[in-house]
Structure of CRISPR-associated endoribonuclease Cas2:
Amino acid sequence: MMDLLLTYDVDTTSPEGAKRLRRVAKLCEGYGLRVQKSVFEIVADDAELLRLLARIDSTIDTERDSIRIYRLPHNGLADVQTLGIARVQSHRDDLVL
Amino acid sequence: MMDLLLTYDVDTTSPEGAKRLRRVAKLCEGYGLRVQKSVFEIVADDAELLRLLARIDSTIDTERDSIRIYRLPHNGLADVQTLGIARVQSHRDDLVL
């Protein structure tokens, strides 16, 4: 399984953009957590990631929206630094104390 | 040097929030690139990162805003997957073809 970070840039001042963000959020939440309005922490294997990206690609407006997917180091999602109200969130049962 | 990803969640529908985002963007752009409205790719060493985080902490509203900083693998910023209008961007001179 890979730890991934997916960021979505979409103009949510338009109703269509807000709708696309809701749809992408729903897709991503099947594989992880929404940690900011348009940032998703994802744990997936190669096949799941391909499936997710195909679904997202058919959901977004590919001429307006931007999606970036970063691969983190092993257990990288447990190693995030935060400022403000952000909190580290647990993805794997074995990390729950 | 570390490859880092910094994501900022701030309510930009308020003028104060939009102003804080502009200020954080200006701080981050000293260390990297703004690749989405509130996503910054940063290349920094430990001392630079500490300095940047201290400046950001005194800029954001710590009771409303969320900042997350992820450490990527070595050269992780050159290894991003994209959909839509997103493009991989070069940070190091030696990567320019």
